[in-house]
UniProtKB/TrEMBL annotation:
InterPro entries: ApbE, ApbE-like_sf. It comes from Frankia umida. This is FAD:protein FMN transferase. Residues 252-269 have a biased composition (Pro residues). Residues 246-277 are annotated as: Disordered. SUPFAM superfamilies: ApbE-like. Its cofactor is Mg(2+). Its EC number is 2.7.1.180.
Length: 303
């Protein structure tokens, strides 16, 4: 996956239970990297692409990801296409990052850390509230103005995924034309499932002017979205759970300046345990902080 993941736990837990919860989530993330990374020659994705094995030879969760990718291809009319690569091989990584963050969130929940934010380089899963009576505040970056926000989402128990060009340039290919998608600068999807949100954010970026038409299906199911076009124009669904920030306006509470969505939360007390960071040499770096605020990713995502 080649990305940075931060874990912000707000559940008050004894140190041993907190450490166990974090370890479970980190194990899930490293397993995802080992299975799905296109940068690792021994991953299942790489082996499948070289024809060394078939999908039936893969573990059940790998098979499930490929089935999910195919289902998203069908639902998006081919705009999310795991089969579109210049070398002609399958690549499901357009939704793996969201799936891995969701899986890490479930691992935390099962271990008792039920109030948390998992931030996989801008794909976020939050559960519970940032503080009693205080929702999570998630900043959506302005793709045209580094260090500024275009919107702030305030909610609990949701997933937020953004696909855009500010970090990686025109990296999303329109499968219909084989050329980079260029009409939209970013798409943010808000809903209950980070895997699906990740896939639809990518598909909507490829859809360009057709994005609202594509996203109508999600909107009818209670999902929400925000798009920013190349001219800086912002469009949202009627149900978007946040505030759009006018160009040049300052948010009511200063956000952390970032290039991808990140938690924007009120100051908290000191962590109950020492932050633990994974080795920087690992393809997936994990920064952990407990009960003390968010950790901002230090490098852009690479799918």
């Amino acid at each position: 996956m080649g990305t940075v993941v931060s874990i912000d736990v707000r559940t008050p837990l004894p140190p041993d239970r907190l450490d166990a919860a974090i370890a479970a989530a980190v194990a899930v993330l490293h397993r995802a990297d080992a299975d799905f990374s296109t940068f690792r020659a021994d991953s299942w994705v790489s082996r499948l692409r070289r024809g060394e094995c078939g999908l039936a030879d893969c573990p059940p969760h790998v098979q499930a990801i490929y089935r999910a990718a195919e289902a998203c291809r069908v639902r998006t009319g081919g705009l999310f296409d795991p089969g579109w690569r210049r070398d002609g091989t399958l690549d499901p990584t357009g939704l793996v990052k969201g799936w891995a963050a969701d899986a890490a969130s479930w691992a935390l929940t099962r271990a008792g850390a039920t109030i948390h934010c998992v931030n996989a380089a801008g794909d976020l899963r939050v559960r519970g509230q940032a503080a009693p009576g205080v929702p999570w505040r998630l900043g959506i970056a302005d793709p045209a103005r580094p260090g500024h926000l275009v919107a702030v989402v305030e909610s609990s128990d949701l997933a937020v995924a953004t696909s855009g060009t500010s970090e990686q340039g025109e990296h999303v290919i329109d499968p219909r034309t084989g050329t980079p998608a260029h009409h939209l600068a970013s798409v943010t999807i808000v809903g209950p499932d980070l895997t699906l949100a990740d896939a639809f954010a990518t598909a909507a970026l490829a859809a360009g002017r057709r994005a609202p038409e594509l996203l109508a299906e999600l909107g009818s199911a209670g999902w929400a979205w925000l798009t920013v076009d190349r001219a800086g124009g912002v469009d949202t669904s009627a149900t978007f759970p946040g505030t759009v920030i006018a160009p040049g306006a300052a948010p009511t509470r200063p956000p952390v300046p970032v290039a991808t969505p990140t938690p924007v939360s009120p100051p908290r007390s000191a962590p109950t345990s020492t932050p633990v960071a994974a080795s920087a040499s690992l393809p997936v770096s994990v920064a952990v902080i407990s009960a003390g605020g968010s950790v901002t990713p230090s490098v852009p995502a690479r799918r």
